[in-house]
Amino acid sequence: MDLDALRYGNFSALGEAVGDWEEMVVNLKSLQDDAERDLKAKADRANWHGANATVSREFVDKTAGEFADAHTQANSIAKILGDTRSELIDYRQQLNDAIDRGLKKNLTVMDTGSGGFTVTMNIHPDRAAKGTEVPDHSPQDVTDFRDAVLRILSGATESDTTAAKALNLIVDQATYGFSGADYSDRDEAAKAIKEADDLANLMKNKGDDMTPEEFDRLNNSMAKYKNDPLFQEEFAKTLGPKGTLDFWADLSDPSDGGDLQRARRDQLGDFQKNLGMTLAGATQSDSADMQSWKDRMVDLGGQTVQTRGSNVYGFQLMSNIMRTGDYDDDFMNKYGNALVSTEKRMKLPDHYWQGAGGPPMPKMNFIGEDFGRDPMTGFMTGLSNSPDAATEFFNETHPQDNAEWVLKERHTFDDTPLDNGDGNQSRDATGKALLAATSGMNPNDPNATYVEHTPENRQALDRSLKYLSETGDDFPREMRDDMAKVLVNYGDETHNTMSSQADHPDDPRQLDRHQLLEVTKQISRDQDSYGLLNDGLNREIVHDINTDHPSDPKETLQRAGATVGFLEEARYQALDTDKEDPSWKAKWAYHGIGGAVNFIPVVGDAAQRGVDALTYQWQQDEQGRIDDQNQQQNGKTFTGREGQLESLAKIWASANPGQTENNSYTLTNEINAAAFDGNARARGLAGDQ
Q1: Are 446 and 395 in contact (CB under 8 A)?
Q2: DSSP labels, 122-160
Q3: Which of 15, 179, 204, 681 shows its CA 20 to 30 Å from the CA of 662?
Q4: 3-class DSSP assignment, residue 108
C-alpha cells in the first residue's frame, strides 16, 4: 500500500459500503426467515404427490437455501469490510503518530510510489529560518523511524490484500447464486487462506519426507478446516491436481524412504478422510480456477505417476481420495465417464489396476481393508455420497452405457489379498451407488429420509433391473442387500408388479415382471437380504390394504396374496439354485429391518395398523419351516406362510369392516388361493410351466 494512500485516504466511501452491506444483511435475514418459516415450512407440510411433489418441493427448498446463502454471504462481506476498514483506520492513526514522533526529531517520510517511501529531514539546518532551532537525530533514529513506517505499511497492505483475496474468493465461488462461506472478520478469513497455502506447500515441497510433527499439524489443520470454503479452494488450487496425485503416490509408496507410513500409520485413514472432505468442498466452487482444476484432474486420470517403487494411475490415486465428501456432480460424472471409457479401452482393466507385468502396486487406501488398487471402489463410494450425480451416472449412455459396464460387463478382482472370503469391495460400493441413484438418498447418511422419486430415479431402476437380471446366477452377491433396499424403496411399484395378473406397459407403476422375478430370486439367495425384502414388502402390503380404495375392496386382499406367492416362488428358485450349499436354510437369523428403515417410504405411517403383528407372525412362519425339506408346494396351501396369510386376512377385515359377507375362514381361504395363483404366475414367468 502506498504511504499517501494510507495517510490521506478517505475511508468514508468504505464506511458507506459497510453500512449498505449491514443493511442488506438485515433485509436478507428477514427474507431468509420468511422463506424458511413460511415458504419452506408450508412446502414440507404439503401433501404433494408425483412430479409436482418432486419439482415444486425441490424448487422451494433450493429457493429457501439460496436466501440462507445470500444472507450468509452478505454477512461475511459486511464483517470483512467492516473489520478491514477499522484496521486501516487504526493503521492510519499509527502512521500519523509515527510521523509526529519523527517530526520531533526533524524526520519525515515521502511517498515514492509503488509502495515505496523515503525518510528525509523535515527541515535542513542550512535552510532553517533564522532563530529556528532544528532538533537533532541520530542514524539509529532514522532506522527506527523507517522500520516503524515499514511495519505499519506492511500491516495495512496485509489487511487490504487479504481482505481483497477473501472477498474475491467468496464471490467467485458461486457463478450463479451465493456462497455459503461464513466468516466473522477479516482475520478469520485471512487465517484460513494462509493455512491453506502453508499446508499445500508443505505437501508439495516435502511429500512424505515431512516430519511426523509436521504431519500432525497437517492432519489437525485439515480436520479443523475441512468444511471451510475459502480454505478448501485455496488449498486445492495451491496443491494443484498434479500435486495432489504426486503427494498421494509418494505417501502410498513405502519403498522411497519416507517415514510417515511407519510413524503415523494409524492416522493415515483419518487424514485420507480429511483430505477427501477438503477437496470435495473445493470442487463445489464455480470459480474459473476450480473449473480448470476439475478438468485437469479428469485428464490426469488415465496417466501414470511414477514413484520410486511403482507406477500407478491417476484414477487409482484420486478415487481413493474421493471416498469421503460430497463432490461436485458435474465433476463426478465427467470423472466417471472418463474412468469407464478408460476401462473399456483396457479390455481387461483388472490386469492394469494390478500392475500386471510390472512392479507390484502399493496399498493406496487407508480406509477399510481393500488396498485401493481398484479405482472403481473409491469412485463408487464417492458417487454414493452424491445421489444426483449417481442417478446421472447410471443413466448415461454416451460415450458408453455406464450401467451396463459396472453392473454386467466389468471384470473385478480381489483387492484384499490378505483377507479371503470378504467379498468384492468394488461391487459392494457399486451397490451403494446404485441405491443412491435409484432412491435419491445417500445410503451412507444414517439420518437420510425418504424422498419422492424423479423420472430419472425410476429410469435408473429400470436400467439396473435389466442389466442385473441378465447376469442370472452370476448376480453379484455383494449387491443383494442393496437391491433389496431398492425394491422396498419402490414398495408400491414392487407390490403392484408382483401382484399383477399380466403385463401392463401403460401402467406407470409396473416394472418388468420377468426382470423383477430374477432379481428377487437373486436377492433371496442371501438370508438377510431376503428378510429385508420380505419385511419391507409386508409393510407396503399393509399400507396398501389400509389406504388404497379400488372399486372392489377385495383387490387389496388378492394383491396381498399374489405378492406373497410371487415372493415364495422367488424363494423356492433361490433355494433350489443353492441346494448343494443352502447357506442360510439351516438357521433363521434375520434381525429386523435395521439400517434399511430409512429407505422404506411407509415406516411410521398411520396406515401401518397391524404391521407389528404381521411381522411377528411372518418371522414365526420362517422360523418354523426352516428345517423343512426344500420342496415345491404344488397345488397346496402355503403351509410355510399360513400364519402370515391369516394375519393379512385379519388386517384386511379390520380395514374393511363393511365387508360382512366374509368371515375369517373364507378370507384366509381367499388370500391363500391368491397366493397360489401368484406363485403359479411367477413360476410361469420363469418358464417352469
Answers
A1: no
A2: SS-GGGSPTTPPPPP--HHHHHHHHHHHHHHHHHHHHHH
A3: 681
A4: strand
Angle of helix 664-685 relative to helix 554-577, nearest 10 degrees?
Answer: 50
b/e per residue, 67-77, with b = 16+ CB within 10 A? bbbbbbbbbbb
CA distances from 148 to 92, 119, 265 (A): 13, 11, 48
CA distance 499 to 675: 9
Distance CA 674, CA 40 (A): 45
- By mean pLDDT, which of 162-166, 515-519, 521-525, 632-636 is the weakest? 632-636
What is the reported pLDDT for 69? 64
H-helix segments, 207-287: 212-225, 229-252, 260-263, 268-283
- Tens digits of per-residue pLDDT, 246-272? 999 999 998 876 678 888 999 999 999
What is the pTM for the complete model shown?
0.79
Please name which of 544, 549, 573 lies closest in space to residue 560, comparing C-alpha atoms.
Answer: 544
Residue 55 makes CB contacts below 8 A (sequence gap 6+) with none
Side-chain half-sphere exposure of 64, counting CA atoms within 13 A: 18
Q: How many Cβ atoms are within 10 Å of 411's Cβ, its own excluded?
A: 12
Candidate from 180-194, 305-319, 539-553, 665-679 with smallest mean pLDDT: 180-194
* Grid cell at residue 370: 481393500
Question: Cα(669)–Cα(105) distance, rounded to whole angstroms?
Answer: 112
Strands 107-113 and 116-121: antiparallel
Per-residue pLDDT for 386 more than 70? yes
Question: What CA–CA distance (Å, rounded) separates 603 from 540?
Answer: 9
* C-beta atoms surrounding 606 within 10 Å: 9
The Cα–Cα gap between 212 and 409 comes to: 44
For residue 44, pLDDT over 60 is answered with no
Contact 590, 536 (CB under 8 A): no
The pLDDT of residue 46: 52
What pLDDT, on the 0 to 100 scale, is given for residue 84?
Answer: 81
Q: CB–CB of 531/525 below 8 Å? A: no
Q: Which has the closest alpha carbon to 332: 313, 346, 345, 319?
A: 319
Q: Hey, what's the cell of 599?
A: 429407505
Rounded distance, CA 358 to CA 17, Å? 63
User: How far are the Cα atoms of 511, 524, 583, 672 from residue 678, in angstroms, in the given order?
Assistant: 16, 17, 26, 10
Torsion sign, CA atoms 678, 512, 543, 568: positive
**Cβ-Cβ contacts under 8 Å for 246 (sequence gap 6 or more):** 204, 207, 305
So what's the pLDDT on residue 185?
A: 66
Query: Does pLDDT of 184 surpass 70?
Result: no
Q: Which residues, in sequence order, are bridge partners of residue 119?
A: 109
Nearest-angstrom CA–CA distance, 461 and 599:
14
- How far apart are alpha carbons 7 and 24 in whole angstroms? 30
For the stretch 56-67, pLDDT in tens is: 555 555 555 555
Please name the residues in contact with 507: beta carbons below 8 A apart, sequence gap of 6 or more: 496, 500
Range of weakest confidence among 29-38, 419-428, 535-544: 29-38
Distances (CA, A) of 295 to 290, 301, 390, 594: 9, 10, 19, 40
